[in-house]
Every structure is written in structure tokens, then in C-alpha cells.
Amino acid sequence: MNRLLPLPRWARLAAFTLLIVVACLLVAPTGYAQDVEPEGLVPGKTVTYQQTIPVNVVFVGFDRADVDVATFRAGLPATYEPIVRYPAFYGLEGRDMGLRFNFDYRTVFTDAAFEDDFFGYLASIATPGDPTLFQQLYNGMASNVRDVTGPVGYIDGPSAEQWLMTAGRQRLGINPDRSYTIYYINWYDRPDFQFHVYTKTDSPDPDTGYNFGLLRPSRKMVAWGGSHGRTWFYDLSAGPDSWTGNYDVDNADVDGDGEADYRIPVIWEYAAGGYRDPAALSSDLGLVTRYVGVNLLFTTSPLYDPLVAAPGPDGQRVAHIELFNLHRLSNAADWIDMDMIQAEYESFQPYYDWQFVLDNNRRPAPVGVRQAVRIGGGLSEREDCWVDYGTTDAEYYCFFDEHYADFVPEYGPHDYVATVFGFNGALSNMGNVPLGFADDNWRDGTQSYVFMFDGPEIRSSGYGFTTTAIHELGHHFGLSHPHDGYDSTSGVDYDPSGDFYFAWLGDEAHSMMSYIDVAWEFGPFDRDNMYRYEFAGYLNWSNEMLDDVLAHPDRAAVRDLVAAGREHARTAERAFRQWDYLTAATHARLAYEAIATAAQTLGIATPAFATETLAPINGTVPRFIDPIR
After folding, report:
1. What domains are there in the chain, each with its CATH number?
2. DSSP 444
3. CA-to-CA distance for 312 and 77, rounded, in angstroms?
4. Which stretches does DSSP call E strand in 288-444?
5. pTM of the full predicted structure?
6. Is 129:148 a contact under the CB 8 Å cutoff?
């Protein structure tokens, strides 16, 4: 828990901070003088920071008659206001995120020259091969319109994305630096069409060396984006593929949950007697734009409140990973790369002072730990702390919450400690475990601890601890998956099942938070969203504290800190307007540090420390776990 700290090093850094502010003002983007000067901090007010988001939708290979633009646009949202998702499952509103995005949609149909060049490029980089397993399964369906025949072209997805981004800028007038773009692609109607899928094969698991993109038929894709920028494409003439489930045209319920699954078929299945009425194409593309592009990639909502994980001023953000060995023949530390975890987070959020700690308990785990894992994995129903929660699923949380001090040392009073408990063992000792999950506190949707699992059987599926740790810490710090999220217009939180099964398309993008296991970094969509969350959050926290600071009789003593905070806030707002979200988050954090230090100097409590809750236990809320895939 964070506590108050005496005056940190702000006094000796004040002059340096002001020099940074002046430098940032000198290098502000040209043309900004025409805009309204940002307010900076507004004491006592929760500001909603608004931004117009251009969304380009480009139809490549479609005739204008194929897509009814009015129908396509009819279901698109005009705005998006993110919420903190997990408190909503408890019936709570959560912190006001202070963000509102207003969308400006532009639809473009490419001309024959663009299409000749693009499809010629795809053909030139395609590696011929046999139909994928899932294309063969599609061929075996009773209701398929036609069979996929070889040779099938295996096309590098990031290369196709790069071509589209470059051509979009040069030939369509798209500015990829200040807009998001979706390309919908149809190669099928051309005489040079060849069956194809997209791949990404350059990122094997860092611990096991297993290359999911190369070896798994399920990782042959129909969409991709985010490797190079704010662009995502979906090729309806690719596949069919596994991830979207569109290889199955016979069965309504493809995932076996007893509910019909809405999937987007390959383009030739939009036909009389096909899987989908041709008239549904326009509305289907509208669904993908709204529920995948807008809601899950471009302007999504956080799973947890990112500011709960905020260190205090001068505090570090600590990732403490505690490993327990339940398997005598292997050492957990051999299957985790702490350097990679550290490098990824220092790149992702460089505005924090990070500390990464690995505690590998090489001896067999204590009896209590082994018993807790067996209970959580469904191997035992022995009475323990879980009884108060009504489900054995709570055992991981309640056991390690009660015994936290037995395993994790105290850190600095202003540090935020994200604690990961990892278990290395055979499934016979762990039971029905996922790869991992970022748990909450079972009371109000505040994040608590991360749990992750590995062992011989899981490693045989390709997974070590490293990528699971990065992924689950991503949840802990706030990020959602690109396949589940919140629709701001309707207020519906959804996952990729039933009417929203097609949301699995969001995983076919460059994101550490995806399940498709072909990219192990945070992509531009992850970064944009996180930086905007923290930009608005830190400025509004500063607004909250500044009201009390300015009302304090000794406010003159912290005048320089207040001035520095105001300047950082103005710099942050300028950067936000210019789509420089990293700079916006960096200076919003600096504004918070200045105002929080001023508040502490005056003996005023800061919002970062009000994390205790008296809410009752609630064991009925659905849990988010990340399964062994």
C-alpha cells in the first residue's frame, strides 16, 4: 500500500524541470499557434479531453455497387467515451476517464490502378503452398459454395500493411499519423485471384523457441495491422481461417457454448445459396468497423483503472515476480527472460522509473502454496479461505492476499508493486489452470495480483513464462484484449461469442494483448490507448489536488512546483492535440508529480493513496482468464 513520503528530490530538480519545459515549448510542432492555447490545469474540475478522430475506411477491389455506404455507415458510432470495465461488472461506475472521441468517417473506393498495383504486389510476395488445415476443413463442409484449391499464397501480413500505409498516404491522401484506417479487401472478383492467407512468422516464443506463426495452421490469418502504424486491414477474399471460425459454414454454434455464433464469411459466401445473403455485406462491414476497429483497436476501454497502478511522486513502478517450483525436474527461472520483460515495459512506458525483481524459489514450494494451487485448479475442495468467497476460483487471490508478506518484501512507500505469482509444475499438480490471469480484489473491480502457470505440458504447447508475464501485467496496468471490450454507444460489454463472435478478428493485429501469439510487443493501438488514459487521468488527478493546494494558507511555499505542474500540463495538452500521445502521457505524469509533491509538502493527501475498500466480497462476478491456447 502506498503511504505519505517526506519531501522528495523536487527541490533539487525544480530548475532542471523548468529547463525541460522551456525546451519542449521551443520544439512544439509548427502550426500550433493557430490553435487555442491549452488551459493546462483547471483546479477542482474533472475535464473531459475531447478529440476528433478521423477514421478512413478504404474499399480495395469492391465495386461501389457492392457496398451500400449509407447502410454501412448507419450503425457506426458518432462518439466513444471509455470507461473502466471491471468495476462495471460490480455495478460500479469507476473513475471518470475524462476522454471523449468524436469520429469523422471517410469512405474511399480505390481505382483500378491502385488495385492492379496492390494485388500484383500480393502475388509477388506470396509463397505458394498447400491449402491450410482450416481451408481443407472448409472444403469438407456440406454447405460451402466452392472449394479452396492450391497452390495457396502465404503472404506476410506486415508487408501488406506497409504497402497499404505507404500507398494510402501517397495516393489516397491519408495521413496515417493523425487518423486510423481500415482497408477492406476483395481480390476474389479479379482474373488474377489466387487463394491466400496472411502470416507473421518472425516472432517465436522467447522461452521455448516455438514459432506459432510458422507452425500453427490456426495462425494463418485474414486480417492484420498495427505492425507499422495506425492501420488495420481485413481481406474478405483470404482464408477461410480458424480464428474467425468462418471455415465452418455448416454449424451455427462453432464454439460449442450452446449459442449461435455470428461470423463474417469469406466473400464468395455472400451469394444466393451461400452462407450469408449478399445484401448483408454492407451491414456486416459496419459491424466489424464498429465492434472491432473502433471499440477494440482504435479507442478502446481499459479493463482495470491504469491510475490504480500509479506510483507516488518519486516512486518506482515495481514488477515483482515470485516463482514457485512444483516440478522437481525443471527450474522455473529457466523459462523466463527478465531482460525481455524489462525492455518491453521500459519501452512501453518510459515515463516511469521501473524496477524488475525475480524471486525464484528453487526448493519445492511450501505445503500451503501447493495446496492453494490444487484448490484453485480444481484438484481439491479442502476448506480454506475460498469458502468465504463461495468458489474455489478465489483461492489464488485469498491465499496470497493473506500470506503476501511471507513472500514479497516491503518496497518504498511511494512505489507501486505489481506482484506476479508464477507456478512451474505438471498439470497433475496444478489441475485445470490457464496460462494466466490478472485478478481483481473480488470486491469492487480493483486489480490485485497476477497469476501465471507453466510446466512441461504447457511448454510443449509452446509457452514459457515470459510472454504470459508481459501479457498479464498489461492487463494489470489496464489494457484489455483486442477481442473483448465495451461499446460506448449501447453501454454493452462483450466478448467474442454469440452475436459478437466476429470480434475474434481483433486478435489479428500486432498487440501483446492478442491471443494469436505472433507478436510479443505492445503495438501502436496499445500505446495510443494507454497513453491517452494516463494523459487524461494524471491531469485530472492534478486538477483535484491543485484545488486543495491553492486553498491552503501556505500555498506560496509551493509556488514553483505549481508553476512547473501547470507548464507540464500545457505541454501535455499540446502533445495530445498533435497526436503525440507518448509526450502527452509523459508530461501529464510530470504535472502530477509536481502537484502531488506540492500537496504532500502541505500535508494534503493525494488520490494515489486512497485504494482501500470496504465493499463486501462478491464471488459472482465473471473472471477474465487467459487459457492455454
Report:
1. 52-298 (no CATH), 306-481 (3.40.390)
2. S
3. 37
4. 317-325, 354-364, 416-424, 436-440
5. 0.93
6. no
Cell numbers describing residue 493? 460489454
Supply the DSSP symbol for 545. H
Cα–Cα dist 18/14, whole Å: 6
| Residue 20 confidence class, pLDDT cut points 50, 70, 90 | very low
Nearest to 514 by CA among 292, 184, 181: 292
Beta strands in 32-169 (DSSP E): 49-60, 79-80, 99-109, 127-129, 152-156
CA dihedral 554, 556, 558, 561 (to 10 degrees): 150
CB atoms within 10 A of CB 2: 20
Q: Does residue 16 register a pLDDT over 70?
A: no
Query: Average pLDDT of 585-591?
Result: 98
CA 414/CA 9 separation, integer angstroms: 13
CA–CA separation, 525 and 302 (whole Å):
12
Question: Which band of pLDDT confidence, cut at 50, 70 and 90, is reported for residue 613?
Answer: low
The alpha helices in 552-580, defined as continuous H runs, are 559-577
- Mean pLDDT, rounded, for 567-572: 98
Residue with cell 516512486: 315
Asked which of 385-399, 579-593, 597-611 is least confident by mean pLDDT, the reply is: 597-611
Instruction: Judge whether 488 and 82 are in contact, CB under 8 Å.
Output: yes
* Cα 244 from Cα 240, distance rounded (Å): 8
DSSP 124-163: HHPEEEPPPHHHHHHHT-SS-SS---SPEEEEEHHHHHHH
Answer for the pair 332, 360: CB distance below 8 angstroms, yes or no. Answer: yes
Looking from the CA of 137 toward its CB, the CA atoms found within 13 Å total: 17
589 has pLDDT over 90: yes
- Return all residues near 102 (Cβ < 8 A) that are at least 6 apart: 50, 51, 52, 53, 78, 79
Where b means 16+ CB within 10 Å and e means fewer, 110-147 reads beeebbeebbebbeeebeeeebbebbebbeebeebbee
Location of C-alpha cell 491522401: 173
| Partners of 156 in the β-ladder | 199
